[in-house]
Amino acid sequence: MIEFFVAPLEYGFMVRALIGSVLVGVMCPLVGAYVVTRNLAFMGDALAHAVLPGMVLGFIAGINPAIAAVPTGVAVAVLVRIVSRRAGLSTDTSIGILFAAMFALGLAMLSTSTTIRVDMEDLLLGQLLGISPTSIYVSLGITVAVILGLFALHHWLLFASFDPVGAQVLGRRTNIVDYVFLVMLALVIVIGIQAAGVILVMAMLVTPAATAYLLVRRFVSMMIAAAAIGTTAAVTGLYISYHFNLPAGPAMTLVASAIFALAVAFRRRAPV
To answer: Which residue, 159, 167, 211, 254, could crosslink 174 as a Cys pair with Cβ 3.0–4.6 Å?
Structure first.
């Protein structure tokens, strides 16, 4: 049994993948707790697709795609708020427009470029086992920045999540906090894409947080439980991926979904 866990760590790529999976398992659910309570799951999905042009530019310029995706994700997150306010459209409508446009732009760039040799399956489903040392350092830096940001803005984010009407009354200060949160969400999605890919990153962002929502009552407890569930799902999925020759992203997502299903079943039986 011990061999099952220890043997893969003899390889450097598995050690890097383990570090990357822990970072994804912690950060995505921490931010996901706010995403779930603020009904921003569609925003997370849209940002995961919208960073594709930045990643393609990274491939073209020979820059780590994780680094190249950061400014794109931040720009799109801020642009959603600007378009929504300037055009008088709902946030969902603005997200839908920008998400479709940016993803289409990324696909067009991929199809017309003759210098990019990238496997679309790796891009869409993730390739955690191939994560580079540079990506680990980028992910670690983003993780530290986001944790500090969540700690500093926790009071305001909590207020805006559970009393949106009162937050609107306060006006500008809350709007600034919203912009900062969207930036942090974009940064976390960049981390998640490396592990789960463009398509499945939302699962790691939302599913552990939704599971924790079913199990605990207090918001801080929900964040802690979500991070624990996310880490468990990410690490377990990584080992399943290695031993059974499966893509890491889908394996992590399936484990997270199984934990959610168990939580739903447990909650239904609890009142009996």
So the answer is: 167
